[in-house]
């Protein structure tokens, strides 16, 4: 039931965003005919499924989506100006995609798709059990998958799924300190922090002022990694794979092998290769 004909589509003809919305197509052939006729810059589809997509009525559920846009990602290891992207920062984003994927699998989710958006990644989850979740439930999943809540050092944390996620985001944070003036004070403690993390030394974590400060700063960074508005929005339009990101000239496409995927080469239009 939940297929293409229940999606709303939008089109961008100028490079400024989807100005033509509320389109419905019965099948992929009809959509392809429209694309060949109009030649849009970019194509968007709703994360939601509707009984009447052209009027956004009769909500049937929504994909669970996580949006990682490199231009907004903190602690990039490149020298790009904010708003630009390069091979280095696009590969930086992969590290967080791996964390998110592992966290989603901890929740038992399986129908997960990684999409290169042109300037980052969309992780789209379509397992049947998540389609009808409310916004507040999606927000709780977002906190879990990227470490947006501090770990509780007053409780036993060893072995807890959330602790494993948060531990990995701490290690990513430490890897990027050479590129951060704001958090440079942690550089002298890297060996110490890694040591207590390697053995899950809860007592040292509790006693260490610098570790408690680190937790709060990692949370602040983690909250900037994903666009939370996309995850909690039940009626969002999102870029459709195979269309062009007009701001950076790269193609939005599904990634089958994240490890081998090279954004700069694999997502370039063929005429430019």
List the helices and strands and how they pair.
Blueprint: E1 9-12, E2 20-23, H1 28-38, E3 42-46, E4 48-52, E5 57-62, E6 64-69, H2 87-106, E7 112-116, E8 120-125, H3 135-146, H4 161-175, H5 190-198, H6 202-207, H7 209-225, H8 228-232, E9 237-239, E10 244-245, E11 250-251, E12 253-254, H9 263-266
Antiparallel strand pairs: 1-2, 1-3, 3-9, 4-5, 6-8, 7-8, 7-12, 10-11
Helix pairs in contact: 2-3, 2-4
| SSE run | EEHEEEEHEEHHHHHHEEEEH
Q: Tell me the quaternary state.
A: single chain
**Percentage of residues assigned to helices:** 25-40%
Radius of gyration: 20 Å
- Widest sheet: strand ordering: 2-1-3-9
Low-confidence stretches: none
- Total strand count, please? 12
Largest sheet: 4 strands, antiparallel
Return the average pLDDT rounded to an integer.
91
Describe the structure using short key phrases.
273 residues; alpha+beta; 4-stranded antiparallel β-sheet
Protein described:
The chain is an alpha+beta fold and 273 residues long. The protein has two domains: 4-60, no CATH class; 66-228, no CATH class. 36% of the residues lie in helices and 18% in strands. The chain has helices at 28-38, 87-106, 135-146, 161-175, 190-198, 202-207, 209-225, 228-232, 263-266, and strands at residues 9-12, 20-23, 42-46, 48-52, 57-62, 64-69, 112-116, 120-125, 237-239, 244-245, 250-251, 253-254. The strands form four sheets. The chain has a four-stranded antiparallel beta sheet with strand order 2-1-3-9, with no helix packed on it. Strand 4 (48-52) and strand 5 form a beta hairpin. The longest helix is centred in the middle third of the chain and has 20 residues, at 87-106. The radius of gyration is 20 Å and the shape is globular. The two termini are 39 Å apart. The mean pLDDT is 91.
């Amino acid at each position: 039931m939940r297929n293409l004909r229940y999606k709303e589509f939008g089109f961008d003809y100028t490079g400024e965003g989807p100005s033509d919305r509320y389109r419905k197509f019965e099948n992929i052939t009809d959509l392809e005919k429209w694309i060949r006729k109009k030649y849009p810059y970019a194509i968007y589809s709703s994360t939601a499924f509707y009984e009447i997509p052209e009027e956004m009525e009769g909500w049937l559920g929504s994909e669970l989506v996580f949006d990682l846009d490199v231009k907004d990602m903190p602690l990039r290891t490149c020298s790009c100006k904010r708003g630009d992207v390069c091979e280095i920062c696009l590969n930086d984003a992969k590290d967080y995609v791996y964390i998110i994927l592992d966290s989603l699998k901890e929740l038992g989710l399986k129908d997960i798709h990684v999409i290169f958006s042109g300037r980052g990644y969309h992780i789209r989850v379509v397992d049947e059990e998540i389609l009808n979740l409310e916004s507040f439930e999606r927000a709780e999943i977002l906190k879990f998958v990227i470490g947006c809540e501090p770990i509780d050092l007053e409780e036993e944390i060893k072995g807890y799924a959330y602790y494993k996620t948060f531990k990995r985001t701490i290690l990513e944070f430490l890897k990027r300190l050479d590129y951060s003036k704001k958090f440079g004070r942690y550089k002298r403690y890297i060996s110490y922090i890694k040591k207590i993390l390697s053995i899950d030394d809860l007592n040292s974590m509790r006693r260490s002022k610098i570790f408690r400060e680190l937790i709060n700063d990692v949370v602040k960074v983690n909250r900037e990694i994903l666009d939370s508005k996309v995850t909690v929005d039940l009626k969002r339009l999102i870029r459709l794979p195979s269309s062009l990101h007009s701001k950076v000239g790269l193609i939005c496409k599904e990634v089958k092998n994240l490890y081998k995927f090279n954004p700069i080469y694999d997502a370039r239009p063929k005429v430019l290769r």
